[in-house]
Design goal:
Rad50_ATPase_archaeal, zinc ion binding, ATP hydrolysis activity, 6-stranded mixed beta sheet, alpha/beta, Rossmann fold, zinc, flat, 15 strands
């Protein structure tokens, strides 16, 4: 796994920095405080979310609230990207594989990194991730790293008094105690099951006897209940029939008394017949009353006919006057209708004429508005330069912009050359002429280069100012050209619209000229029509006053006169028939008739009532005979019913007691069966108790032996010896790439204290502290890479932060060679340094500067070969 790039957003002094790495040696250079080490801090933060200083909040650039770090890595064709947010409150971290998310939380991303690299943070920082000035710390911390890699601390925890093995032993002891108690419980349940089976057998026998007796009692009880129900049915019928007989006797007595009273109130039949004949004689008053009413009706009808005749004659007089007036108005009304017909024919042309007149007024208004707009646009365009002039000036300014950009690029290249020359002045040869340098020559070259840099800076400021003004002027002219183009388009649109308005005016004027005679004629006819409209309206109101209507009303008058004469003749005839009979005489006869009719109706009702009472008495006597016969045929005695009721009560009480006994026996037996079922189920569960006891005792003994074996020093010693052999192998395979002049190296374990020995070809060993500075650095790097190989084969990079700190000049020179040789062991090295000597070992140089915020200014000698 190698690192492709790291992006820092608001991280420490970096606002938005992207650092790309290549394979080989990547040297990050810059002055102290430029933000070089921040790149290393960002890589470690991206991998394990570990802040290099204080809390996560202290990693944020001043004045910002949010930031992030993105780290890209690759292995063959597979790319991985880690995104970490600079926040401790629900960070939205992300780990992607080939741009597909695989983890979305802070913990998930950290776990995913451990799975990819096959190491955790402690192993990484102890091996391939070297902090400032701590390359050789690996010699002192070798024992801790080995303990961590072998997880020896976990073995000690495993066998400790409070460790998991002892905890498991205690659990097995507790389970064993429970299993033994379960065996005791099994024996108790077996004895209880035998007792319950005996009790259940006895209870079943008692239940059978009780159920048999209960069935016999219920059979006898059913027979007596049927007999009781039969007698109760007869009792109810007996009571009902007795009540009916008493009721009928009472009713017959009441009817006979009422019949005797009615017969006493009736007169003789002769008196009733005389009263009926009197009613028939008095009934003739109705005919007299009808004739008298007809006479009154004829009088009323005659009065009505006289009134109608007078009204009709008045109407006839008025109608004759209105008919004469209608004849006078008829000629002018006909003239009005002819005018209306002519106006209707001309109405379409007149409406078209008025529509065209209104449209012409609108067009004249539009003509004024459009002309004013065109004049305003023309005036505004005259005050502005032409479109060609603006385009020409823009073209000239763009040429000047290109010239300024080219000159700035030249200045940028020139400045870099001067800076490179300044960096080489510290050597022994002149970078210009190639002659040896003395101090005076160095000062002169440095002064000349710095003066030239100042001149370049001043010229750059002038060119940037002119370039900014040129670009601003181009934008201003482009806006002005755009405005001129818009105004020209608006002017052309206004002129085209004006031409259309004028053309439409001419067309409407021609149409109005053709329609004008018809419009004038329409107006003349309209004036005459208004004059005749009142006469025509009056003529219409008199439309019902025709000669035919006059003749019709005359015929109605004649018909009414004939009806009136006929009415008077009928009145005379009835008057002679009545012979002086008046209403008072008729009313007197009606009173006598009502009195006689009332007496006759009352007597007929009494006679009918007497007949009905006689029939009712006969009916009730027949019903009484039937009920008495039914009562005699019942064959029922109340004493027998009482005896049957007493026997039913006795049997019900016996049934109740037997039911209680039966239910009790059944409940007891069911409870015994339920308990037997529970005992059987529990016994089935307890069948494995003996096996559990045996198994748990074996497990306890095995755990005891395992704790004893792990607690001895043999396993720990074996693991350390095996790990030392593997580390020796990796260390010697790595260190040979540095050509240190030793035959081999060995890791020595002295009672838990680890050290490294170097063996000369004569097999004499040398302690690491006796090696030269360069040899120790090379050996420390080799040891770190060997430990990394032991932990994981996935790491293809090594990071060193300021490795030259605390090194003298000779050791720094040796470090350059070591870094060059390290590439053959680890494909990618990232070295952060302020020492320019290490640039000579670099395949990719990354310069970091800080002008208020850190940024990557330059890459050399070659661009990164992958994004």
């Amino acid at each position: 796994m190698k690192i492709a790039s790291v992006k820092l957003v608001n991280f420490l002094s970096h606002e938005d920095t992207l650092v790309r790495f290549s394979e080989g040696v990547n040297v990050i250079v810059g002055q102290n405080g430029a933000g070089k080490s921040s790149v290393v801090d960002a890589i470690l933060f991206a991998l394990f979310r570990t802040p290099s200083r204080g809390g996560i909040g202290e990693l944020l650039r001043r004045g910002t609230r949010r930031g992030l770090v993105e780290l890209s890595m690759f292995e063959g064709d597979v790319t991985y990207k880690v995104r970490r947010e600079l926040t401790s409150n629900n960070p939205q971290d992300l780990l992607m594989r080939n741009n597909e998310p695989i983890h979305r939380s802070a913990r998930g991303v950290t776990a995913g990194i451990r799975d990819l690299l096959k190491v955790d943070e402690n192993v990484l920082t102890s091996t391939v991730f070297v902090r400032q000035g701590r390359i050789e710390d690996v010699f002192d911390s070798l024992g801790e790293v080995m303990t961590f890699l072998l997880r020896l601390d976990r073995i000690e925890k495993l066998v400790s008094t409070n460790g998991p093995i002892r905890a498991l032993q205690q659990k097995v002891e507790a389970d064993l105690k429970i299993a033994e108690e379960r065996m005791k419980r099994r024996e108790e349940l077996t004895r209880r099951r035998k007792d319950l089976e005996v009790q259940l057998s006895k209870g079943e026998e008692e239940l059978m006897v009780s159920e048999s007796e209960l069935r016999e009692v219920r059979r006898t009880l059913d027979d007596y209940r049927k007999k009781r129900d039969t007698l109760l049915g007869l009792q109810s019928k007996y009571v009902t029939l007795s009540s009916d007989v008493e009721r009928l006797l009472k009713k017959i007595s009441e009817l006979e008394v009422e019949l005797s009273e009615v017969k006493t109130s009736l007169p003789s039949d002769e008196k009733i017949e005389a009263l009926r004949r009197k009613v028939e004689e008095l009934s003739k008053v109705n005919e007299l009353k009808l004739k008298l009413q007809n006479f009154k009706n004829l009088e009323d009808a005659g009065s009505t006919l006289s009134s109608q005749l007078r009204t009709l004659k008045t109407q006839l007089s008025n109608l004759e006057v209105r008919a004469a007036r209608r004849v006078q108005l008829e000629a002018k009304a006909r003239q009005y209708e002819e005018l209306r017909e002519a106006l209707n024919k001309l109405n379409g042309e007149y409406m078209e004429y008025t529509r065209l007149e209104a449209a012409l007024k609108q067009l004249e208004e539009k003509e004024k508005t459009t002309s004013a707009v065109a004049e305003r646009l023309s005036t505004e365009l005259e005050s502005m330069p032409g479109e060609r002039e603006i385009s020409s000036e823009i073209s000239n300014l763009r040429e000047r912009e290109s010239e300024l950009s080219s000159e700035l690029k030249y200045l940028y290249t020139k400045r870099n050359e001067l800076k490179e020359r300044l960096s080489k002045i510290r050597g022994e040869v002149c970078p210009v002429c190639g002659r040896p340098l003395d101090e005076e020559h160095k000062r002169r070259l440095k002064s000349e280069a710095e003066d030239e840099l100042l001149s370049l800076d001043a010229r750059e400021v002038e060119l940037n100012d002119e370039l900014s003004w040129t670009r601003a002027r181009v934008k201003e002219l482009e806006k002005q050209r755009e405005k001129v183009s818009v105004l020209l388009n608006q002017l052309q649109s206004s002129k085209a619209e004006l031409e259309l308005v004028l053309k439409r005016k001419r067309e409407i004027s021609d149409q109005m000229e053709k329609l004008e005679p018809l419009a004038k004629k329409f107006e003349e006819l309209s004036s005459k029509e208004k004059e005749l409209r009142a006469i025509h309206d009056e003529f219409l109101r008199l439309s019902d006053s025709t000669e035919e209507e006059v003749q019709r009303v005359k015929r109605q008058v004649e018909a009414l006169e004939m009806k009136l004469r006929d009415n008077l003749a009928k009145q005379e005839g009835l008057k002679s028939e009545l012979q002086g009979i008046d209403e008072r005489y008729v009313e007197m006869m009606e009173r006598e008739l009502r009195n006689a009719q009332t007496q006759l109706d009352r007597l007929q009702e009494l006679k009918q009532r007497a007949y009905l009472l006689s029939q009712s008495v006969e009916d009730y006597r027949r019903q009484l005979e039937v009920k008495e016969e039914e009562l005699r045929s019942l064959n029922y005695t109340p004493l027998e019913l009482e005896k049957v009721k007493e026997e039913v009560a006795r049997l019900e009480e016996r049934e109740r007691k037997l039911t209680e006994v039966t239910f009790s026996l059944r409940g007891q037996n069911e409870e015994r069966r339920r308990e037997l079922g529970q005992i059987s189920e529990e016994l089935r569960n307890l069948e494995v108790a003996a096996e559990d006891v045996k198994r748990l005792r074996v497990a306890y003994e095995r755990l005891n032996r395992l704790r004893t074996v792990l607690g001895q020093s043999k396993l720990k010693g074996y693991l350390i010896t095996r790990a030392k052999d593997i580390l020796d192998y990796h260390l010697n395979s790595v260190v040979k790439e540095f050509n240190l002049g030793f035959s081999n190296f060995e890791v020595v374990n002295d009672d838990g204290k680890f050290s490294v020995r170097a063996y000369r070809p004569d097999r004499q060993w040398v302690d690491v502290r006796a090696l030269s500075g360069g040899e120790r650095v090379a050996l420390a790097i080799s040891l770190r890479l060997a430990l990394a190989r032991m932990a994981s084969q996935e790491i293809g990079f090594m990071v060193m932060d300021e490795p030259t700190i605390h090194l003298d000049e000779s050791r720094r020179s040796e470090l350059v060679d070591i870094v060059r040789n390290a590439v053959s062991i680890v494909p990618q090295l990232i070295v952060v340094t302020h020492d320019r000597e290490l640039e000579t070992a670099g395949d990719n140089i990354i310069e970091v500067v800080n002008d208020g915020r850190s940024k990557v200014l330059e890459r050399r000698p070659q661009e990164a070969r992958f994004e």
